[in-house]
Design goal:
Purple Acid Phosphatase, chain A, domain 2; 6-stranded mixed β-sheet; 42% helix; 370 residues; elongated; alpha/beta
Length: 370
């Protein structure tokens, strides 16, 4: 990303957060008949910047203090997002309901508390979602589990990973695929954190996510290999007759814009062009984000597995997420290539899920009947 565009984006984000903060301050004062001069509204509104910038600042900082401040910033950010839209909802209700201003204020506050509580609870209770896929020339049925976006770090650690492992083992899979973002940042990047992966009763294949880069990919890669995980880095292997391709987190092609600011020598297009993929044999591609699907289709890939999007993770982002990601969540078809995007089984930022689920995906792959 060019520096001038990055600066403009940061400037825009700052002003949006300040504007939202001023709006929430003004409406709260109006609903509860509080005195709040304009200068105070602006100052209080500017405090809306603290959670997102606190989240960024403390993500890769360790210690109890950093943990507390990061966790607080993340939770408060989620609460503010929900409160903002509850205020918008109550403004709409005011057009139709003859209630007092304090009553509308209580509706907004109560709704925010209930939604925040549910969102946190929901994010910690993974669901199992089954998907059925057929492949031409597949020699036998395969039951796979896809995990993605666990985001181990400040919030989630070995205990949560063991919970996931127990659910995975209960499905009795033949193989497990991890499509990136095992870690959130560089906190709790240790063998102790990922040791539960050793308890999975199936071979595991994993690829890199953008947050694994933030965490320190060299260390993450080493730890995964020490646990017996097969890490695929722009390479192909064969698993039970399936060509299994795993790519490092990258862009679709040289022309693609990357919001994360990575400058990478290789792209999905260039890597796939170099791999000797047989279009007549079944194939699965693992890549963290659901991009470059057209290049997978051109190479005859049967199934593209990805994560990254979180499905929007929580309302109201769920409303607009599909505008940013052509493949947002669930199963898609692009010609003969099927694309499955999991919602992920962890969270980034607010530890909340509203309108999405923490998902463990079971993929039943069967031979296609001619």
């Amino acid at each position: 990303m060019r520096p001038i565009f990055l600066l403009l984006l940061i400037f825009l984000i700052i002003n949006v957060f300040i504007g939202i903060g001023v709006f929430m301050t003004a409406k709260t004062a109006q609903y509860f008949h509080l005195r709040c001069p304009t200068w105070l509204k602006i100052i209080l509104g500017a405090t809306a910047l603290l959670p997102p910038f606190g989240l960024i600042y403390f993500m890769n900082r360790g210690g109890i203090t950093a943990d507390i401040l990061y966790d607080t910033a993340a939770i408060v950010l989620g609460i503010l997002m929900l409160y903002f839209f509850m205020l918008i909802a109550t403004e709409i209700f005011r057009l139709f309901l003859p209630l007092s201003l304090p009553t509308f204020g209580l509706i907004a506050v109560t709704g925010t508390i209930l939604l925040s509580t549910y969102g946190i609870w929901n994010s910690w209770h993974p669901i199992v979602k089954e998907v059925n896929i057929t492949m031409t020339n597949l020699p036998q049925k395969i039951k796979a589990v896809q995990l993605s976006d666990i985001h181990l770090g400040h919030f989630r650690a070995a205990g949560y990973l063991q919970k996931i492992v127990d659910i995975v083992n209960a499905q009795k899979p033949d193989v497990v695929f991890i499509t990136g973002d095992l870690f959130d940042g560089n906190q709790r990047v240790s063998m102790q954190t990922i040791a539960p992966l050793k308890n999975i009763h199936a071979p595991i294949y994993a690829v890199q996510g953008n947050h694994d880069i933030y965490a320190g990919w060299t260390k993450v890669d080493s730890l995964l290999r020490q646990t017996g995980v097969h890490v695929l880095e722009n390479e192909m292997t064969i698993y039970k007759g399936i060509q299994l391709i795993g790519l490092l987190n990258t862009t679709a092609d040289k022309q693609s814009f990357d919001i994360h600011g990575f400058k990478l020598a290789h792209t999905i297009k260039s890597i796939l062009a170099k791999l000797d993929i047989d279009p007549d044999r079944p194939s699965i591609l693992l890549h963290h984000s659901p991009i470059g699907v057209e290049y997978a289709r051109q190479k005859g890939i049967d199934l593209f597995l990805a994560g990254h999007t979180h499905g929007g993770q929580m309302f109201p982002i769920t409303i607009i997420n599909h505008y940013f990601f052509t493949y947002n969540k669930g199963l898609y078809h692009d010609g003969a290539t099927k694309v499955y995007v999991t919602q992920g089984v962890g969270t980034f930022g607010p530890p909340m899920r509203i309108g999405t689920d923490s998902e463990i995906t079971v993929i039943n792959i069967s031979p296609k009947q001619n």
